[in-house]
Amino acid sequence: MRVLVIEDNRETAQFVQRGLREASHVAEIAEDGEVGLELARAGGYDVLIVDRMLPLRDGLSLIQMLRAEGDRTPVLILSAMSHVDDRVKGLRAGGDDYLTKPFALAELIARVEVLARRRQPEEQATRYVVGDLVLDRLTHKVTRGSESIILQPREFRLLEYLMRNAGQVVTRTMLLENVWDYHFDPQTNVIDVHISRLRGKIDRNFDRPLLHTVRGAGYMMRDGGE
Amino acid sequence: MNRAAPPPPSAARPPRFWDTTSFRAAAVATLALAVSAILVVAFVTRSTNDAMSRATIEALDREGAALNRIYAQGKLDQLTRAIQERIAAGDMHLYRLTDATQRVVAGNLHESPALPAESSGGGTFRYNPQTEGAAAPSRLAAARVFSLANGLTLIVGRDIEQQRSYLAATNRTLGIGIALLALVGLAAGVLLSRHILKRVDAMTAASRSIMAGNLTQRLPRTGTDDELDRLATSLNTMLDRIELLMAGMKEVSDNIAHDLKTPLNRLRNRAEAALADQRGSPAWRAGLEHAIEDADELMKTFNALLLIARLEAGAIDDTMGPVEVAAMVEDLAELYEPAAEEAGLGLTWHNAARAPVHVRANRQLLGQAIANLIENAIKYAAPANGMPLMGTPSAVAVSLALADDHVEITVADRGPGIAEEDRERAIRRFVRLEASRTKPGTGLGLSLVAAVARLHDGMLRLEDNKPGLRAVLSLPMMAAAAGGDAADSEPQQKKDERAWQKARAN
What we know:
The complex is a heterodimer of chains A (about 230) and B (about 500). Chain A is α/β, with parallel strands linked by helices and about 230 residues long. Chain A folds into two domains: about 1-120, Rossmann fold; about 125-220, Arc Repressor Mutant, subunit A, CATH 1.10.10. Helix content of chain A is about 40%, strand content about 20%. The longest helix of chain A is centred in the middle third of the chain and has 15 residues, at about 105-120. Chain B folds into three domains: about 10-210, Beta-Lactamase; about 225-310, Helix Hairpins, CATH 1.10.287; about 315-480, Histidine kinase-like ATPase, C-terminal domain (Heat Shock Protein 90, 2-Layer Sandwich). In chain B, the strands form three sheets. A five-stranded antiparallel sheet of chain B has the order 2-1-5-4-3. A five-stranded mixed sheet of chain B has the order 7-9-10-12-11. The longest helix of chain B has about 55 residues, at about 20-75.
């Protein structure tokens, strides 16, 4: 995957670049808004990571420019501001996701990977399959092997999100944002408890676990591996 | 008790004109004027009355003396003739001549007048004029009594009814005049105070808007440079200064936030990068992990502080929209229910509202506020060992109820609660009550909720749940008609434009 990091703070940019490389992605850096816009226009990136405050051209204007030109490359906005309306403004300007500094590298990479994958024409799957676990979005039925699993509506949505992003790390904040639509940091382990309940339903009585905890990052649906 | 939302200065009752200084001043002036007018009129009336009475008495004395002279020169016949002639002349005089046996010899006054005292030589009395047939109303008269020779007594009187009624008419006229004066004076006072009140109301409205965070607003001036204008001018100058200071403060706090967050960020990144190297010993790794956790905790405190500061500045108006609060609270209750159970608590949800309840709110902020209340309840009410105490079902009760035009979201727990004298303090920033010092948290939870409540024109109340704490978040409901998309009537393009400009300004 090729990522363009448009960030004027060199240290942050290199930190992100190093992290992405370790996750076996290619990352390039642009240090101001104009260079960033030029590189992005040249194309070929799977995801753009754009800082909100940039010299020469600010991040939101850069995104608006690209969107006006018909460029649909997914954009992750980085911001030092945790203003409540910043997220709204960023997403309105055409950003696809929003991350407040400071962020955990794992969080950033998980989000970038999910964004990049979503770019591929979203197959309007009616069924998600991971191993022998099947989720049918039309009938709202979940089965594992020959066994039918009864889920609460919220548990269904949680599993749906995890399975849609199977093979990707999904962080707790991503779950809170996408399954519950809240953007604040809960103080307690609220998400973990929901996951462990879900796990009790889909994994407990089976040999092979499908819902894995990724230490220091989040969770992942995956068949196989340890 | 509630610091979270002090009622607006005069929300209870709008000021009325009779409460104003200007009206009171006008009323006092009118009263003084009326009293002095009454005194002057009383004095004039009295002097006039006296002068007229004196003139009457003199005239009666002259008349008596003249008749006495006639009697002295002639005989009784001449006197009676003279009296009859005078009566026939039809003037206003009254006569009564009696002899020693009290027999009336001559005169038109047939009844003996009830004079105060014979010896005084005269006085006033009422009499019935002798008109043919009908009895006329009695009239007032003044009379003098003269003792003539041979035991004759002559009473000479004059009808003063006209004088009396003239005086009464004068008094009435003056009374009406004074009443009119008072009326006009009070009306002027009312108009004056209405006028001033209107200006003061405009100033009050402006200052409320400023208090609500609209620091660019200024008090209105009429341009007449009167004392209210001068007051407005100096207050406006003060506001200019405050705005400047606030802008400076905001810049400083934004800078501090940025300057402190950047190195904190770096610290966190370095620790994380170091962790990526798998060679470290478990102890080193644990240290790094703790450093990251601490950095995150610091950052959370930081963000909460900045958020409260922004909320108190009231600067996020354009992200407010209609929110269905019953579904939202249910959502959050459901989100926290497993976590509560994990902590050894039950979490119940009760919705007393029959229909959807809409409030105008920022969904994220309101969600965070309610989540804070639930987290607080779980944190403080959880049994120490994670197991419910025997026989005491510890529960967090989340409920929603309607009270007039407000919706009340209540989170009640069965924990230690907060003593009444500490409740106000608990809402302040960084205050964690002694009993809870050992629990983790930023100490900003309740003050953030209070700030969010204020931003939404609501309030946070802390009450006794006997035992435990009942936190009630009260928010004004949207009018049923405005429950739809009313708040989103602004064209999207315009909103975007503004957001963009704001972003550029950053």
